[in-house]
What we know:
45% of the residues lie in helices and 23% in strands. It has helices at 16-27, 44-51, 62-66, 80-92, 111-121, 131-146, 166-170, 172-187, 220-235, 272-306, and strands spanning 7-12, 31-37, 56-57, 73-76, 96-99, 107-108, 125-127, 152-160, 191-199, 207-214, 241-250, 253-260. Strands 3-2-1-4-5-7-6 form a 7-stranded parallel sheet, sandwiched between helices. The protein has a 5-stranded mixed sheet with strand order 9-8-10-12-11. The longest helix is centred in the last third of the chain and has 35 residues, at 272-306. The two termini are 26 Å apart.
Amino acid sequence: MTSSDKLKIAIIGSGNIGTDLMIKVMRSKHLVCTLFAGRNFNSAGMKRASQLGVPISDRGIEAIIADPAICDVVFDATSAQAHIAHWAVLEKLGKTVIDMTPAKLGEFCIPAINAQECLDTGTANINMITCGGQSSIPIAAAIGMVHKDIEYVEVASSIASRSAGPATRANLDEYIDTTEEALQRFSGAKRAKAILILNPANPPIDMQTTIYAKIANPDLEAIRASVDAMVAKLKTYVPGYGLVVPPTIEGGRIITTIKVVGAGDYLPQYAGNLDIINCAAIAMAEMLATSKHGKHGKKHQEERKHG
């Protein structure tokens, strides 16, 4: 596939998430990074992009406004508040946006669960929820596939303090609210609670998430089978995702723990919290790319058939 055939990606936000996304895009067979936009040419991310030969701008979203044809899809790796303003502009420009912030303006997306649904509905704003959501919601949903009457689900994610940047810290309220809403939606639980722990330990810890589910008369064997199947799906796009504690009954609750080890593309391997949401976003972008080319190919075949 030549560069001209690839889906053109613009990234807004030159922090850790944006920079790691850029490197993942560059490695993809289906995507090409045509713009890396921030506000400071001297930031580490901008310098890295420049070294790699990626087009850069210090004008943020204004760079896309000035040249809308520069991209097909925009990754917004800024903040929840900034995304609200960005979406008002990008929607008018007809851009598909993959939102890395907990702004929850668009369709909640967990690739292992509803990627095809997002493609089928043609939603232009795809929200990747939160890092804790990407790690915990698939497990909660797998439990919900077995038991439709989950009374309560709680998730607690522990991440290295060093992996929580300024945007994460500024959006903690949005993180909790968005994760809890998505948890209920995908698991069917009556109530949900999300907890995020920033652990200052040195050396830094790997991301670890524990999911608790209160269910009457749980079918442990069926739950384990469902969770195992979900983990297998996750590992297709997040290789560092794995079970630490399989579903277990303890104190009248189902408890399971997962760990995410990052790929180490730009960020340290302990930053699995950032890696998982970025891997999920890349998975969606690649599906958008293959879907786009599939539609174009079908259209071309129809034109030849009737031409």
